[in-house]
Amino acid sequence: MKMQLYFAPGACSFVPHVGLEIIKATTGQDFEPKLVKLHKDEHQKPEYLAINADAQVPSLLVDAKPLTQVLAICDWLDRSFPKAELMPTAAWAHAQALRQLAWMNNTAHPTFRRVMFPDRYAESEAARAEVHRMAVTQFRTCLERVQGWIETKPRYWLGDQVSFHDAYAFTLLRWGGYAGIDPKSLPAYLAYIERVVAAEPVKAAMARERIQLDTFNPA
Ligand SMILES: N[C@@H](CCC(=O)N[C@@H](CS)C(=O)NCC(=O)O)C(=O)O
């Protein structure tokens, strides 16, 4: 099987990227990383729109067939590579894990989109500034929610092995730095993410994307 992951450094594509690294380590199935330069609008080009009509990363090509949306890609990877143990198998535990992954994707993530792109939500400068200001506060609340979830975890989100959730939690905390949120102000979250970034699949994906955890720049 040929798998190609279209990703952008530090984007939500990091979530399936880590999943693919785990699959490679546990099953030997490799994948081809395909860098999409968002700053060069490569995601707006017709060739890419043919893969992902939303002009977003991630996209996964499986034997040349496209699959989009973080949750759908993660679900397909989990079902296709059960040996990688990416999600719990018991129905209730699986549903709870899916609930939290979905929340990161459909609540925390769009909140950050308003931080980054207020121009997509309002026309006047004043309205954009307000969208941004409110989104920063709301995004911090999202990060606090994640901190509440992981506070009691001895190691990683789902147990002893990193998975999609840890990759998303890393991504959100890293984005927090761009929103002006000091990761040190969320000490339990930061301590957990320091464990996450030490895990081999996460290290491999970070190295390929050339990203660091620390994006916070005190003004
Ligand atoms: N719901 C989509 C969200 C994807 C998304 O927001 N991707 C961002 C990067 S994190 C993107 O490609 N943004 C490009 C843009 O908005 O121009 C998914 O789960 O795949």
Textual characterization of the structure:
The chain is an alpha+beta fold and 219 residues long. It has 2 domains: 3-84, Glutaredoxin; 91-199, Glutathione S-transferase Yfyf (Class Pi), Chain A, domain 2. The chain is built from 8 helices and 4 strands, in the order βαβαββαααααα. Strands 2-1-3-4 form a 4-stranded mixed sheet, with helices on one face. α1 (14-27) links the parallel β1 and β2. α1 runs parallel beside α3. It is globular and about 50 Å long. It starts with a strand and ends in a 10-residue tail after the last helix. The mean pLDDT is 97. Glutathione is lined by residues 11-12, 38, 43, 55-58, 68-70, 105.
Topology diagram in text:
Elements: E1 3-7, H1 14-27, E2 32-35, H2 46-49, E3 59-62, E4 65-68, H3 70-80, H4 91-116, H5 125-150, H6 164-178, H7 187-196, H8 200-209
Parallel strand pairs: 1-2
Antiparallel strand pairs: 1-3, 3-4
Residues 11-12, 38, 43, 55-58, 68-70, 105 line the site of glutathione.
CATH level-1 class of the largest domain: Mainly Alpha
Stretches where pLDDT is under 50 for at least 5 consecutive residues are none
- Summing up helix and strand content along with how strands pair, one would put the structural category as alpha+beta
Helix content: 40-55%
Average pLDDT number: 97
The count of helical stretches stands at: 8
Q: Count the domains.
A: 2
Which small compounds were modeled alongside the protein? glutathione
> Strands across the major sheet, in which order?
2-1-3-4
Topology as H/E string?
EHEHEEHHHHHH
Strand count, sense and barrel status of the largest sheet are:
4 strands, mixed
Q: Beta-sheet strand percentage?
A: 5-15%
Shape type: globular
- Using only C-alpha atoms, the radius of gyration works out to 17 Å
Distance between the termini: 48 Å
How many runs of DSSP E, i.e. beta strands? 4
Gross CATH architecture of the largest domain: Up-down Bundle
